[in-house]
Amino acid sequence: MDRGVWRIGGAGLALLCLILVWCGPLRAQTALPPPATELAVARWTGAEEPALWQVLSGAAASGFAEVEDGRLVPTARREVGWWRLVALRDIAPHNAPQLVLTPPHRKRVELWRPGDSEPLARAIYGRDADYSHSTRFLVFPLPQGLRRGDALYLRMIAADVVPAQVSILPGQEVYRGDIVYVAVRTFVLTVLGLIALLAFGLWIGLRERGYVFLGLTLATQMLAMAIEGGEMRAWLELGPLALDRRMDIILNTAAVVASLRFFSLFLRLRDLQPTAARLLDGCCVLLGGLIAVTIFKTWRYSGSFGNLVLLAAIAVVLYAIGAAVWRRQREGVFLLVAWSPLIVSLVALVGAYQRWWPMYRWLEFAYPSSLAFSGLALLFGLTSRLRQLRHDRDRAQHRASYDALTGVLARTALEEALAAAVGRAQRSGEALSVLFLDIDHFKRINDEHGHRAGDEALRIVALRARNRLRPGDLCGRYGGDEMVAVLIGARLDEALRVAEHMRLALNDHPLSIEGRLIPIALSLGVAELRPGESGEQLLRRADAALYASKSAGRDRVTADRAALGAVPAAGAA
Ligand SMILES: Nc1nc2c(ncn2[C@@H]2O[C@H](COP(=O)(O)OP(=O)(O)OP(=O)(O)O)[C@@H](O)[C@H]2O)c(=O)[nH]1
């Protein structure tokens, strides 16, 4: 893919990720029904709230002005707004028409129907909550239907300035919609909660901090969605909390902080882009301060301050993601996959909200579903990164444990494995022997045929030595042209036989390297483990036996004298 596309994609994703986390009000747009074509909407434009009798008697009619797009836009937080809805056609009562208002969050609405002496009050939380419906809409039944020209009056107090929309739907459609709404919301919130739980579980199990921030991002998002969507209304005491602006600021800011921390860890900014990491740390400190202050008090500029810091964070994240995608960092691709559905759903929502295209039914659940998908994709991304880290670590460990040239154990790993094997043998009383082998006059091979031929000779000797061992035995390069084989369960006589076979295998078959036949001979020293002896002592005795082989003229096998005395090899020179 073209690099420019990657950069732009990554940048857009980061921006949207943060905006999505932040912009709670936009989420509330998810449940907008089609505009009410059967109602003419007008808003009260007077400076003062009109008296009830003035509204209901029609004396205040001149104070209402028609709203073209039919939307109910609160002018200011907590300000009382009056709206008049006039039926443009007869609405028959036979299919139980219901006036629905959405989004319902943070709105308390009173409806005066023709002939009512008391208003019908609805809200998601509190004493006006209507538990016979889901929280998809505020629902007002119109059992008598409406006659063309009938006026309904709405008195709305909104804790935010999110526009609302009214519509008239048949009762059956409202109930069916309720069932689907509850099912989908429950599913999505459960999935979000489960992914958050899984992320916390993985954090506890794997100690990878990225998981805890992913979990926190999802958990705060889930909580904010459930409070905002009204799923928490079963807990009556949550009512005031849910309507409190502080809750909104705290939850959304916490989600932003957690997602910034996640970003930083996921993109490995501390190692790869330390300046960006420091700037994001600064943003997190400021937002953390905002949360701490908001717990006690909000002031007029709380929101603006949060947004300002958020903008700075967005700029940093944009830059960081751009740089990551530019470097083809794997995590960039995961972000792309994770956030794409969110972008699509957000663009589709905004477009529908702006009336560029219809408010399709699926849009109602697009945002929460894509959020759940993103969480899952990021969880997968983190897990995949962890797998990669483990793979790298295993490879590094393998590189450290095995000799790169010969493929047998490197010295340190050999000594460790020998110590462990000796410990086991001492405990079980099982036999164990060690062969120390060295190529005779190896320097000459290097001098006469070159270093590359010398390397190849080492490789072949190691291979042939290994081929003489059993699967559980150990073979390692001790240094230069010296190698060690550890024969588990072998007594000295058996070890001597193996050593002799090794020597002959090389003696009888000169090495074929780069088209030349290079004769080669081995000297070996053999020792069997004594009770109470350490691996180090055993090696020392085998080394001494090897030294004896060299001193005696090379190309031979010598057993540790202290045990058996020198054993001249059958074919010794
Ligand atoms: N090609 C190659 N040579 C190596 C490597 N490691 C060590 N050597 C060479 O191996 C030779 C080892 O020499 P020594 O063990 O001291 O002596 P030798 O020539 O084998 O003679 P004896 O052991 O006394 O029979 C040195 O010339 C080292 O430079 C290696 O990885 N590759």
UniProtKB/TrEMBL annotation:
Q: Where are the transmembrane segments?
A: 179-204, 211-229, 249-267, 279-299, 305-326, 333-353, 365-383
Boundaries of every GGDEF domain copy: 430-562
GO MF entries: diguanylate cyclase activity
Kindly give the PROSITE patterns that the UniProt entry links to this protein: GGDEF
Q: EC number(s) per UniProt?
A: 2.7.7.65
Q: What is this protein called?
A: diguanylate cyclase
Give me the reactions it catalyses.
Answer: 2 GTP = 3',3'-c-di-GMP + 2 diphosphate
Keywords for this protein: Membrane, Nucleotidyltransferase, Transferase, Transmembrane, Transmembrane helix
Q: What class of enzyme is it?
A: transferase
Tell me which domain of life the UniProt entry assigns to the organism this sequence originates from: Bacteria
InterPro entries xref list? 7TMR_DISM_rcpt_extracell_dom1 (IPR011623), Diguanylate_Cyclase (IPR050469), GGDEF_dom (IPR000160), Nucleotide_cyclase (IPR029787), Rev_trsase/Diguanyl_cyclase (IPR043128)
